[in-house]
């Protein structure tokens, strides 16, 4: 059996992992790692996979990996990518194509910033999709004071628009952000996002594309 994202989204086991992750991450005061983030990463992974010419099967693997990549956070933040891969395997190992499952697990465990592994085009697509998701809507608002205190909240909250564009003729992948400089400044953005942008650049290079970053209509990379 070939797994499809539309079926996985209805699976109560996967949904309970995501619900638990939501509760855990909210209790830690982290930015959103729930369905909003997962929908964006799943969609972007699939769009990137299609744009770089991957097969329909591989596009589905990219979409599924994107949607499930953070669901292991409730078992521990530092190893959450391995937990997510293990949980995925436990759910489907006896009922789906083992090759498809292996490739999904591999993509999931490859996405973590401290343990990044660009092993194929699917992992490269997932890494760009995940690391490019910075937006005001990721901030879980408890009060205004918290947003100003925490640099991750502040920078995410400052980003009011986020577009990822793939140009197959120019071979560019461009992340365009609108940053509200009343909330934070561009230096704050770079102090926490340089690492993520480097990962996007490496993943784009693997796909044989250039990665560009535009902030407030100015090309910065
Ligand atoms: Fe993650
Ligand atoms: Fe993520």
UniProtKB/TrEMBL annotation:
SUPFAM superfamilies attached to this UniProt entry: HD-domain/PDEase-like
Protein name per Swiss-Prot or TrEMBL: HD domain-containing protein
Phylogenetic lineage: Bacteria, Candidatus Komeiliibacteriota
